[in-house]
TrEMBL record:
Belongs to the nitroreductase family. This is NAD(P)H-dependent oxidoreductase. Residues 200-209 have a biased composition (Basic and acidic residues). It comes from Sediminicola luteus. It comes from the Bacteria. The keyword NADP applies. The lineage of its organism: Bacteria, Pseudomonadati, Bacteroidota, Flavobacteriia, Flavobacteriales.
Length: 209
């Protein structure tokens, strides 16, 4: 299937078949797709937790207003943004860039200083909003990659972030759960898979100027 056909196939799965598991090879493919997501400055100011443990998924379901996708899915991807932008976060990125691209660190200092002057000056709440937005780009990559593999997914904002943070002990790492994407395989009982998509027409969606 081509990309558009795969995107037509996908939908926000409401009921997963809890007897089916995504293979480790496919999980590795999804991880690589997430890692290739575009991020501002290339900073990747987030981490992604992949939850397979059933006890943890059951606890997260309770923190997700009882939505069964969280407990029944094969894996649950929890996108966690850095709550603060720090010198250490930027320095770690500059180290990776130096190593990956073979650029001497001293030749990157100007860029690093520019990032620090720009990002470290942001008020704390604005910085947290900025890092939170980055996770949605990565989440989009995940869902497209799932569709390519005919794996079902469901992006969710309907959860209690503070409870997720507590259950997953995110606060100690300066992280905050902001986007949840259960993945797995649709149940035959999920009637939503048979419904046509409701979308604006292309003329309604787009303006050519």
């Amino acid at each position: 299937m081509g990309l558009l056909e795969n995107l037509q196939w996908r939908y926000a799965t409401k009921k997963f078949d809890n007897t089916k598991k995504v293979s480790e090879d496919d999980i590795t493919f999804l991880k690589k797709a997430i890692s290739l997501a575009a991020t501002s400055y290339g900073l990747e100011a987030y981490e992604v937790l992949i939850i397979e443990n059933q006890d943890i998924k059951d606890r997260l379901k309770d923190a997700s207003w009882g939505q069964a996708q969280v407990s029944d899915a094969s894996h649950v991807f929890v996108f966690c943004n850095n709550t603060k932008i720090s010198n250490e976060l930027i320095d770690a990125y500059m180290d990776r860039k130096s190593n990956d691209q073979g650029i001497a660190k001293e030749n990157l200092q100007g860029y690093g200083d520019f990032m620090k002057n720009t990002l470290l000056a942001l008020p704390e709440d604005e910085a947290a909003h900025w890092t939170r937005r980055q996770t949605y780009i990565a989440g989009g990559n995940l869902m497209v990659a799932c569709a390519e593999l005919q794996i079902d997914s469901c992006p969710m904002e309907g959860f209690e972030a503070e409870k997720y943070n507590e259950i997953l002990e995110l606060d100690k790492d300066g992280l905050n759960a902001c986007l949840v994407v259960p993945v797995g395989y649709r149940s035959e009982e999920d009637n939503n898979q048979h419904l046509p998509k409701t979308r604006k027409s292309l003329d309604q969606m787009f303006r050519h100027l």
